[in-house]
Design a protein that fits this description.
Shape: globular
Mean pLDDT: 91
Helix content: over 70%
Order of helices and strands: HHHHHHH
Low-confidence stretches: 1-7
Number of helices: 7
Radius of gyration: 17 Å
Distance between the termini: 10 Å
Largest sheet: none
Structural class: mainly alpha
Length: 201
């Protein structure tokens, strides 16, 4: 079975916005996950913030609005939500830096991440039906949120590092899926994304 754009997010009407949203998610997630994994210094968060606003946040929100116009409920919900997550993250860190809030309680931050993990868990069900690469994106993102949340709650560097590596894997599969959709839009079936589960032939 050839892997085309239709195999990833459903019926195509005009240009497919999904690669933009996936790239915005992937490359913002890569950078923050490198920090969480301890691969680059925590001071790199100052670079994450503008990227989170412009690419992880704004680009995904725009993608979500386009997915809504295309009638894609999954794409609309996913891109709008994760675009909002990056806006939430950037504002949270910015408010703390500007002393708009007195502190960021680690337990509250941890539970916020776990709540995003719960959202990701049920969105994973939809991702399973889309493609294998999107399935793996949401699987590792779910693991990243829960592990990072636990790391924040228990002040565990090891869990935070593990969550960073899960985030890197989620970003890797998101970037691959973005790449595949772009290339397959020009020459269908060139880059495989793997079959989704429970899909009708």
């Amino acid at each position: 079975m050839s892997e085309t754009v239709e195999n990833v997010f459903g019926k195509v009407i005009g240009a497919d916005p999904a690669p933009l949203g996936l790239a915005g998610f992937a490359f913002t997630t890569f950078l923050l996950s490198f920090i969480n994994a301890g691969l680059i210094p925590s001071s790199g968060v100052s670079v994450v913030l503008p990227l989170a606003f412009a690419y992880g946040g704004l680009a995904q929100l725009v993608t979500g609005s386009w997915e809504m116009r295309r009638g894609n409920t999954f794409g609309f919900t996913a891109f709008t939500s994760y675009g909002s997550f990056w806006m939430f993250y950037a504002l949270m860190v910015l408010f703390a830096d500007l002393h708009v809030v007195s502190s960021l309680p680690s337990v509250a931050v941890g539970w916020a991440l776990i709540l995003w993990g719960i959202f990701t868990l049920y969105m994973w069900g939809g991702a399973m039906m889309a493609s294998l690469t999107l399935n793996l994106t949401f699987l590792f993102l779910f693991l990243a949120f829960f592990t990072l949340g636990a790391g924040a709650i228990y002040s565990s560097v090891a869990l935070t590092h593990a969550g960073g590596y899960f985030g890197i894997l989620a970003a890797l599969f998101a970037a691959y899926t973005s790449f595949a959709i772009v290339i397959n839009s020009m020459k269908p079936g060139t880059i495989p994304v793997g079959p989704g589960l429970f899909r009708k032939n």
